[in-house]
Amino acid sequence: MSNNDLSPTRDTPAIAADFVGVRVALSPASAVRGPVALVGVFQLSAAQADAIDQYPHRALVVALASTAGTMVATPLRQRVFFPDDVKRVASHVRGYFRIELVDPDDVVPEGPFWLTISLGEHLSNVVGFAGPPELTGVRAGLGA
Known about the structure:
5% of the residues lie in helices and 38% in strands. It is built from 1 helix and 9 strands, in the order E-E-H-E-E-E-E-E-E-E. The protein has one helix at residues 46-52, and strands at 21-27, 36-45, 61-66, 69-73, 87-89, 92-102, 113-119, 122-123, 127-129.
């Protein structure tokens, strides 16, 4: 991961100034080959953020579901963060993230897959993706 993984992208969902919670999207929205990433933003009250962690990114839990089963990961748990990785916006704490799902040039798995993120008591929207149906035997991974 690089610092770019903690910055908004053109695919990062927009949020209202008073939004509280987590929003996610796929980047790019549709692809046959990677990279495919889960991009998102969280915004919490300062009290909620402090109760979770100095760097709430560490508590992001990704849940991936498919017809074959489920997988849960905390891909940013062991990451090193710096004070400017979390933004103070009025009375809120905001953070951005990008989590690689399909490596560059890998084939997007057949799927379908559904992803959501939880952060404390907040649950994001659900996004789904699938590769071409003629491709089989390729698995999706949650990169760290």
